[in-house]
Design goal:
Layout (H helix, E strand, L loop, with lengths): L9 E10 L5 H11 L6 E7 L2 E12 H12 L4 E9 L7
Antiparallel strand pairs: 1-3, 1-4, 2-3
């Protein structure tokens, strides 16, 4: 899917996923970012019962890469659910 003409060139986005808690999962979910030279601004992972919740946030992700990374994350072995949340980054006044 290509970005729409009114899409901003960069977007704040958070990928929220639930996955099987297995060794090697975190490098697999960070791989799609590394392959595109994207450095997440925040990564959080913690166990919730029999699942692992992982949140990966990028404050200025190129819009054309959003769907590519989403598609790659959906294919990662162990990922059961993925939600993509588009955010508005709030800047503090100087």
């Amino acid at each position: 899917m290509f970005p729409l003409p009114h899409d901003p060139p960069r977007r704040a986005v958070c990928f929220e996923l639930m996955a099987d808690p297995e060794p090697g999962l975190l490098p697999r979910v960070l791989g799609p970012f590394a392959r595109r030279d994207l450095l997440p601004d925040r990564v959080r992972a913690h166990r919730e019962g029999e699942s692992l919740r992982v949140e990966i946030a990028v404050d200025a992700m190129p819009s054309e890469m959003l769907h590519l990374v989403e598609g790659n994350l959906r294919q990662v072995v162990g990922v059961r659910r993925l939600a993509v949340v588009l955010c508005v980054v709030q800047r503090q006044a100087a």
